[in-house]
Amino acid sequence: MGEARILLRDAPVAAVGGAGEVERRLSFAELLWNDGFIRKAVIILFLAAVWEAYGVTLDNPLLFPTLHDTIATLYDRVKDGTIPMRAWASLKVLFMGYSAGIVLAAIFTILAISTRIGTDFLETVTAMFNPLPAIALLPLALIWFGLGNGSLVFVLIHSVLWPVALNTHSGFKSVSNTLRMVGRNYGLRGLPYVAKILIPAAFGSILTGLKIGWAFAWRTLIAAELVFGVSSGQGGLGWFIFENRNLLDIPAVFAGLLTVIIIGLFVENLIFRAIERNTVQKWGTQS
């Protein structure tokens, strides 16, 4: 036994640890695959290939155009300025409704964390109105605000307000008592306390609410424009899709849908991702 211990002690490190590598350089392919952007790009390319294959197999442009025909139509409509103009018309209304919804959500949430009646009010109205589809409010919006941007903004506020308020309030309630006590020990009260303690600590939940509110608002806007999208100029992307459906220009319909998807991907993976990278990831508050 003593001889075995001496042999082991005198053996080279490489011989003892030669059974497996402690550290290995990743290959170029592995480095690429570790990049989330590359993985998402592969998924998108796969879905695009499935789209093209199905369109070619079906061979009926009136039902399902190929990806090639859709991109060609999209290129033509971008070149003549139709889709950029329609997209901008939609985005302007979206910004108005989204901003107003965030402001109202902030007011409701501040009231909820300040008083018990504010909490009861937020929980009650959320339980009442959050399950109500925004598109169901279109008839009332038409009566109250007429055929214009006011009606669109109204339904967008409904889409944004409740998810943002719910997630923000939930995030505030999950802030640890230790952080709350630190803020109070520094003499923070009211809005400074909310801005310097609660918002940074709960920003992960707040950002989730903003993402959900954006998704709800974007799809609600397109659906609303399909019904009354001629309120400003020639309408937005939803009305563009509806018009071309009536004309049986199905590649143009798919070009409009593809534009909606591209804008959604851009906002989610570039804008919100940049905000997340510079806030919750940088601060180390991401769960």
From TrEMBL:
<feature type="transmembrane region" description="Helical">
    <location>
        <begin position="190"/>
        <end position="210"/>
    </location>
</feature>
<feature type="transmembrane region" description="Helical">
    <location>
        <begin position="248"/>
        <end position="267"/>
    </location>
</feature>
<dbReference type="Pfam" id="PF00528">
    <property type="entry name" value="BPD_transp_1"/>
</dbReference>
<dbReference type="InterPro" id="IPR035906">
    <property type="entry name" value="MetI-like_sf"/>
</dbReference>
<keyword id="KW-0812">Transmembrane</keyword>
<protein>
    <submittedName>
        <fullName>NitT/TauT family transport system permease protein</fullName>
    </submittedName>
</protein>
<keyword id="KW-1133">Transmembrane helix</keyword>
<keyword id="KW-0472">Membrane</keyword>
<keyword id="KW-0813">Transport</keyword>
<dbReference type="GO" id="GO:0005886">
    <property type="term" value="C:plasma membrane"/>
</dbReference>
<feature type="transmembrane region" description="Helical">
    <location>
        <begin position="93"/>
        <end position="113"/>
    </location>
</feature>
<feature type="domain" description="ABC transmembrane type-1">
    <location>
        <begin position="87"/>
        <end position="271"/>
    </location>
</feature>
<keyword id="KW-1003">Cell membrane</keyword>
<dbReference type="InterPro" id="IPR000515">
    <property type="entry name" value="MetI-like"/>
</dbReference>
<feature type="transmembrane region" description="Helical">
    <location>
        <begin position="134"/>
        <end position="157"/>
    </location>
</feature>
<comment type="similarity">
    <text>Belongs to the binding-protein-dependent transport system permease family.</text>
</comment>
<dbReference type="GO" id="GO:0055085">
    <property type="term" value="P:transmembrane transport"/>
</dbReference>
